[in-house]
């Protein structure tokens, strides 16, 4: 327990979106209730902004290009003129979704998570199977890769052309190369020398390693966190909420709704100035 | 910045934009001149740099991009840009080789196809598939549309729209020609759309570069994604330019034979992402 009393709290931050409807609604109801009970201001926070602010807080990255990769999101984000602007993103499914659905094809366990198990199996893979490569400008596409590997997996395994480990290895190498490539494009585009990886897929050490090699080649620094902060957590909503609250944001009760669709670039970033420095 | 101040006091005598209240807005030719003088040109101009690189004698490195180095020199007596794709250590060696070869080949093929379709793009003189090097025409007197838009917008908000309109119109027309030739660029950004204006030319010409991610396709889907990629790059590089981008699309619609299906696909692709705001 944090041993915090209601009077120690300045405001109540909650996730306004994006996300799944039911959890968002339950949280909004609880947040509204305690805010009124304790007579504290409310703050609706964007989930993606939570990841970014938590990542910056934990790693000390100042003005990084952010790769946000999870089961529901794949975005390359950079701060520019009061907004976290999306430079590249998936045009179909998220990378985590692609990995999870592939895990189901191979009947890989969900314990502790399909992505973690793919990562462990990939370490034993040796053979690189040719997969489609879906980079379109600064955007990526994963649905074609998923369909291809869903179709091909069984016959590759039956004919002993590949082991399940090889398939995990090939999928990881391909999709991560795509992610690192669009991140590098965004860094070149913005002239940035920092890169921050957030979101559940960001725990993957192979992705972190590849990003590290790319960053080193261009004299940049990579910032990544482990599963404590990469995976969704409440503290990140508090962190982003605090940044918003200290620069004058408040969500009136009538506006304390939530939404499944809420773009990262819809939020006015009042806590950083035009050059990205904190206010 | 100092150069801009001088320009603004000089009047609109040599301006290709003929409106009396636009005296401060620079023309493409002025931007090219300015960049050549300061040696800051990102893609073309007179910058010479240190002579002789180790791997390419007689060529001098002038730009390092995310996946290629650009050198400037002379090849068979012509001013030449050498584009060398280098290996990316972060990816698996086999994947790396596959991508590098594919992109070098793809670029060479598409440039040939594009020129045949009448799209201005630097002429390729020679390709070395062993070292993944492309030797191509050095665009003299050119600037990126990115630099031009930024320069114009930094001067005046209201007038800049009218000054940029003819350029946007031309970009839309060039893209229409490209798609009608079934060429998908794959990486349209304002950095890859150049504006070229020789000393003798009265109007700037749109030149497309960097066909490394290009492909050939008749599908409206691929063309729609191509425009979507440009839209995203355009709006994120140049904030608050939605109306400007609309001119490109309008001109594209007017000039392309199959624009109806493509624009319909563009609308579809926009809604495809998982976290897009849905209205209605």
UniProtKB/TrEMBL annotation, chain A:
<dbReference type="GO" id="GO:0005634">
    <property type="term" value="C:nucleus"/>
</dbReference>
<dbReference type="GO" id="GO:0005737">
    <property type="term" value="C:cytoplasm"/>
</dbReference>
<dbReference type="GO" id="GO:0070525">
    <property type="term" value="P:tRNA threonylcarbamoyladenosine metabolic process"/>
</dbReference>
<dbReference type="GO" id="GO:0046872">
    <property type="term" value="F:metal ion binding"/>
</dbReference>
<dbReference type="GO" id="GO:0006400">
    <property type="term" value="P:tRNA modification"/>
</dbReference>
<feature type="domain" description="Gcp-like">
    <location>
        <begin position="2"/>
        <end position="238"/>
    </location>
</feature>
<keyword id="KW-0808">Transferase</keyword>
<dbReference type="InterPro" id="IPR017860">
    <property type="entry name" value="Peptidase_M22_CS"/>
</dbReference>
<keyword id="KW-0819">tRNA processing</keyword>
<protein>
    <recommendedName>
        <fullName>N(6)-L-threonylcarbamoyladenine synthase</fullName>
        <ecNumber>2.3.1.234</ecNumber>
    </recommendedName>
</protein>
<keyword id="KW-0479">Metal-binding</keyword>
<dbReference type="GO" id="GO:0000408">
    <property type="term" value="C:EKC/KEOPS complex"/>
</dbReference>
<dbReference type="Pfam" id="PF00814">
    <property type="entry name" value="TsaD"/>
</dbReference>
<keyword id="KW-0012">Acyltransferase</keyword>
<dbReference type="InterPro" id="IPR017861">
    <property type="entry name" value="KAE1/TsaD"/>
</dbReference>
<keyword id="KW-0963">Cytoplasm</keyword>
<dbReference type="GO" id="GO:0061711">
    <property type="term" value="F:tRNA N(6)-L-threonylcarbamoyladenine synthase activity"/>
</dbReference>
<dbReference type="InterPro" id="IPR000905">
    <property type="entry name" value="Gcp-like_dom"/>
</dbReference>
<dbReference type="InterPro" id="IPR043129">
    <property type="entry name" value="ATPase_NBD"/>
</dbReference>
Automatic annotation (TrEMBL), chain B:
<protein>
    <recommendedName>
        <fullName>non-specific serine/threonine protein kinase</fullName>
        <ecNumber>2.7.11.1</ecNumber>
    </recommendedName>
</protein>
<comment type="function">
    <text>Component of the EKC/KEOPS complex that is required for the formation of a threonylcarbamoyl group on adenosine at position 37 (t(6)A37) in tRNAs that read codons beginning with adenine. The complex is probably involved in the transfer of the threonylcarbamoyl moiety of threonylcarbamoyl-AMP (TC-AMP) to the N6 group of A37. TP53RK has ATPase activity in the context of the EKC/KEOPS complex and likely plays a supporting role to the catalytic subunit OSGEP. Atypical protein kinase that phosphorylates 'Ser-15' of p53/TP53 protein and may therefore participate in its activation.</text>
</comment>
<feature type="domain" description="Protein kinase">
    <location>
        <begin position="1"/>
        <end position="280"/>
    </location>
</feature>
<keyword id="KW-0819">tRNA processing</keyword>
<keyword id="KW-0723">Serine/threonine-protein kinase</keyword>
<comment type="subunit">
    <text>Component of the EKC/KEOPS complex composed of at least GON7, TP53RK, TPRKB, OSGEP and LAGE3; the whole complex dimerizes.</text>
</comment>
<dbReference type="GO" id="GO:0005634">
    <property type="term" value="C:nucleus"/>
</dbReference>
<dbReference type="InterPro" id="IPR022495">
    <property type="entry name" value="Bud32"/>
</dbReference>
<dbReference type="Pfam" id="PF06293">
    <property type="entry name" value="Kdo"/>
</dbReference>
<feature type="compositionally biased region" description="Polar residues">
    <location>
        <begin position="10"/>
        <end position="22"/>
    </location>
</feature>
<keyword id="KW-0418">Kinase</keyword>
<dbReference type="GO" id="GO:0000408">
    <property type="term" value="C:EKC/KEOPS complex"/>
</dbReference>
<dbReference type="GO" id="GO:0005524">
    <property type="term" value="F:ATP binding"/>
</dbReference>
<dbReference type="GO" id="GO:0004674">
    <property type="term" value="F:protein serine/threonine kinase activity"/>
</dbReference>
<feature type="region of interest" description="Disordered">
    <location>
        <begin position="35"/>
        <end position="58"/>
    </location>
</feature>
<keyword id="KW-0539">Nucleus</keyword>
<dbReference type="InterPro" id="IPR008266">
    <property type="entry name" value="Tyr_kinase_AS"/>
</dbReference>
<dbReference type="GO" id="GO:0005829">
    <property type="term" value="C:cytosol"/>
</dbReference>
<dbReference type="GO" id="GO:0070525">
    <property type="term" value="P:tRNA threonylcarbamoyladenosine metabolic process"/>
</dbReference>
<keyword id="KW-0067">ATP-binding</keyword>
<dbReference type="GO" id="GO:0016787">
    <property type="term" value="F:hydrolase activity"/>
</dbReference>
<keyword id="KW-0378">Hydrolase</keyword>
């Amino acid at each position: 327990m944090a041993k915090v009393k209601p009077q120690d709290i300045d405001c109540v931050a909650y996730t306004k979106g994006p996300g799944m409807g039911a959890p968002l609604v339950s949280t909004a109801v609880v947040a509204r209730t305690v805010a009124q009970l304790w007579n504290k201001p409310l703050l609706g926070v964007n989930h993606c902004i939570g990841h970014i602010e938590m990542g910056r807080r934990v790693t000390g990255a100042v003005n990084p290009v952010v790769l946000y990769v999870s089961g529901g999101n794949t975005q390359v984000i950079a701060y520019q003129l009061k907004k976290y602007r999306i430079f590249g993103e998936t045009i179909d499914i998220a990378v985590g979704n692609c990995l999870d659905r592939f895990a189901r094809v191979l009947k890989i366990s969900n314990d502790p998570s399909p992505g973690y198990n793919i990562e462990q199996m990939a370490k034993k893979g040796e053979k690189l199977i040719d997969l489609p490569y879906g980079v379109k400008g600064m955007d990526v596409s994963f649905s074609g890769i998923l369909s291809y590997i869903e179709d091909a997996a069984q016959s590759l395994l039956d004919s002993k052309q590949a082991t399940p480990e090889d398939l995990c290895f090939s999928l990881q190498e391909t999709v991560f190369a795509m992610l690192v490539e669009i991140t590098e494009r965004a860094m070149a585009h913005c002239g940035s020398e920092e890169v921050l990886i957030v979101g559940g897929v960001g725990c993957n050490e192979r992705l972190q390693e590849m990003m590290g090699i790319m960053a080193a080649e261009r004299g940049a620094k990579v910032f990544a966190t482990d599963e404590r902060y990469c995976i969704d957590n409440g503290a990140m909503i508090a962190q982003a909420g605090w940044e918003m609250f200290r620069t004058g944001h408040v969500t009136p009760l009538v506006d304390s709704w939530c939404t499944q669709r809420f773009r990262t670039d819809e939020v006015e970033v009042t806590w950083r100035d035009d050059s990205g420095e904190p206010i | 910045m100092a150069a801009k101040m001088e320009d603004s006091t000089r009047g609109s005598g040599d301006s290709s934009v003929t409106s009396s209240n636009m005296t401060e807005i620079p023309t493409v030719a002025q931007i090219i001149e300015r960049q050549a003088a300061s040696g800051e040109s990102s893609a073309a101009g007179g910058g010479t740099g240190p002579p002789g690189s180790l791997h390419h004698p007689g060529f001098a490195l002038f730009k390092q991009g995310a996946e290629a180095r650009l050198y400037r020199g002379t090849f068979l007596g012509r001013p030449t840009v050498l584009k060398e794709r280098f290996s990316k250590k972060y990816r698996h060696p086999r994947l790396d080789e596959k991508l590098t070869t594919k992109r070098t080949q793809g670029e060479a093929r598409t440039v040939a196809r594009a020129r045949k379709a009448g799209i201005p793009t630097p002429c390729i003189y020679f390709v070395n598939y062993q070292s993944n090097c492309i030797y191509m025409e050095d665009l003299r007197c050119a600037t990126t549309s990115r630099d031009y838009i930024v320069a114009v917008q930094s001067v005046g908000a209201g007038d800049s729209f009218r000054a940029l309109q003819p350029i946007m119109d031309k970009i839309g027309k060039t893209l229409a020609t490209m798609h009608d030739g079934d060429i998908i660029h794959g990486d349209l950004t304002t950095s890859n759309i150049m504006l070229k204006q020789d000393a003798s030319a009265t109007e700037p010409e749109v030149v497309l570069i960097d066909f490394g991610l290009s492909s050939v396709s008749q599908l409206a889907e691929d063309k729609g994604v191509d425009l979507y990629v440009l839209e995203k790059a355009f709006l994120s590089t140049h904030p608050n330019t939605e109306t400007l981008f609309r001119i490109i699309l309008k001109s594209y619609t007017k000039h392309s034979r199959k624009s109806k299906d493509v624009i319909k696909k563009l609308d579809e692709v926009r809604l495809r992402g998982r976290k897009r705001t849905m209205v209605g």
